């Protein structure tokens, strides 16, 4: 029976939130980049406009002649007034003339903030001598101001170009406001579509959960309807295959229990029947009944042992270690291997002492390695067996002078059913068995890097005793 559903966000909700968060982050990044790039473009455009106005004034000053009268200007005031009369400022821009005494005059749309600002006058006075460009903020409104001194004789006039930066950036702010509204609507729309798609994609998982909740101990007939061609479809097929295996396993278990009950019922019936008819006054009858009952009990014991063995089939006692003489193990494996084929068999070296090992399993592993070596060598080739203690570990190996293991097979050579290029005589299950024996001893199997032939080492932890 399914337990209570824990409170929390569903996978559909988490996916929707993740998509919405990623979309929001992307749109915010785009908006920030848009603002930075456009703001920089506006600033550069303003600076170019200011530089152009100042440059045109300098050109007129360098010429020194009034274009209308072709007479020298005579005074800085006449030069600047002539320039102002011939130039139309750009939008959000004003051209000013600040004489050394008296009120300033300007060309362009009136801006009361600048006209009444002492800070503006102070900035002009600061730059009157050397000129330059500065930023000015008046009541939260940003301006860019360029000052060019015009000196002729004893006259000194400041030519000023002011640009309303805040007004120039107003279209950008309006654009960003529109972008923000559209981005918010886009996030909502994308989240809704993502929620719908997540619901469609996760529908097989909901069916899987409902099917799993409907499975009981006595009913494994529930199956998923397989639809689609994606990973979830593979999951549906896998789940159905799992249910098939479970149903087969439960059916086998029921048959086993039925068979066990039937087999146990027979000897129990025999026991009861003979106990009911035995004549306690007849010694011979009692002796015969006793012998028969003991025989039935032995049969029942064997049946129970077999049933326990079946129950523990997945947990076999694979290795049984005992003190093992290492020279005898090594030479014994070599002597047994000599009968496999006509090869030049040799003994490299033997480890001294004894170790806690399963001699039969390790002999089986060495013979398996020797058999593999036979399959990849021909008559006259050398196959050697050896053992040694190295860095506190016991190493047992089989090497040969054959063609060796191809590089492309090395990563998978110890996998089950992996075979060499000569399929049918390859490494199949043999090396996986060797690996299982080594791992059962807490060790591993290593394929050495050799220039000639192949060399397999079984490395086992432990020390000599």
Give the key terms.
465 residues; alpha+beta; Beta-Lactamase; Helix Hairpins; Heat Shock Protein 90; 3 domains; five-stranded antiparallel β-sheet; five-stranded mixed β-sheet; 10 helices; 12 strands; elongated; kinase; EC 2.7.13.3
Question: How would you characterize the overall build of this protein?
Answer:
There is one protein chain. The protein is of the alpha+beta class and 465 residues long. It folds into 3 domains: 14-171, Beta-Lactamase (2-Layer Sandwich), CATH 3.30.450; 231-311, Helix Hairpins (Orthogonal Bundle), CATH 1.10.287; 322-461, Histidine kinase-like ATPase, C-terminal domain (Heat Shock Protein 90, 2-Layer Sandwich). It is built from 10 helices and 12 strands. It has helices at 11-63, 76-86, 112-116, 118-127, 165-214, 231-277, 283-311, 326-337, 359-375, 430-440; strands spanning 93-99, 105-107, 132-138, 141-152, 155-164, 322-325, 344-347, 354-357, 382-390, 393-400, 444-447, 455-461. A 5-stranded antiparallel β-sheet has the order 2-1-5-4-3, with helices on both faces. The longest helix is centred in the N-terminal third of the chain and has 53 residues, at 11-63. The radius of gyration is 49 Å and the shape is elongated.
């Amino acid at each position: 029976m399914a337990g209570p559903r824990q409170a929390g966000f569903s996978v559909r909700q988490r996916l929707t939130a993740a998509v919405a968060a990623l979309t929001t982050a992307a749109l915010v990044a785009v908006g920030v980049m848009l603002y930075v790039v456009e703001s920089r473009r506006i600033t550069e455009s303003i600076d170019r406009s200011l530089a152009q106005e100042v440059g045109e004034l300098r050109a007129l000053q360098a010429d020194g002649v009034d274009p209308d009268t072709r007479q020298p200007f005579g005074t800085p005031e006449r030069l600047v007034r002539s320039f102002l009369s011939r130039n139309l400022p750009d939008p959000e821009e004003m051209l000013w003339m600040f004489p050394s005494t008296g009120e300033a005059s300007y060309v362009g749309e009136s801006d009361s903030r600048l006209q009444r600002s002492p800070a503006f006058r102070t900035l002009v006075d600061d730059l009157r001598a050397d000129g330059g460009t500065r930023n000015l903020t008046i009541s939260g409104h940003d301006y860019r101001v360029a000052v060019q001194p015009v000196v002729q004789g004893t006259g000194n006039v400041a030519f000023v170009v002011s640009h309303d930066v805040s007004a120039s950036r107003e279209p950008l702010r309006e654009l960003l406001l529109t972008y923000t509204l559209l981005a918010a609507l886009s996030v909502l729309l994308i989240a809704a579509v993502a929620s719908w798609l997540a619901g469609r994609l996760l529908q097989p998982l909901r069916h899987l959960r409902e099917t799993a909740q409907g499975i009981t101990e006595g009913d494994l007939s529930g199956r998923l309807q397989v639809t689609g061609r994606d990973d979830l479809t593979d999951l549906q097929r896998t789940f159905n295959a799992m249910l098939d295996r479970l149903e087969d396993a439960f059916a086998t278990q029921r048959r086993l229990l039925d068979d066990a009950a039937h087999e146990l019922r027979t000897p129990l019936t025999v026991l009861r029947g003979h106990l009911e008819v035995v004549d306690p006054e007849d010694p011979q009858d009692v002796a015969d009944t006793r012998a028969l009952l003991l025989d039935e009990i032995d049969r029942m014991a064997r049946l129970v042992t077999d049933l326990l063995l079946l129950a523990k089939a997945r947990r076999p006692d694979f290795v049984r270690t005992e003190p093992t003489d290492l020279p005898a193990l090594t030479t014994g494996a070599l002597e047994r291997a000599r009968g496999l084929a006509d090869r030049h068999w040799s003994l490299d070296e033997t480890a001294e002492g004894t170790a806690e090992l399963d001699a039969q399993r390790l002999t089986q592993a060495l013979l398996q390695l020797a058999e593999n070596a036979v399959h990849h060598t021909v008559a006259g080739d050398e196959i050697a067996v050896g053992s040694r203690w190295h860095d506190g570990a016991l190493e047992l190996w089989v090497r040969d002078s054959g063609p060796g293991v191809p590089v492309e097979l090395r990563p998978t050579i110890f996998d089950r059913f992996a075979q060499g290029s000569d399929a049918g005589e390859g490494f199949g299950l043999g090396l996986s068995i060797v690996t299982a024996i080594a791992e059962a001893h807490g060790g591993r199997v290593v394929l050495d890097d050799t220039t000639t032939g192949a060399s397999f080492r079984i490395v086992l932890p432990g020390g000599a005793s």
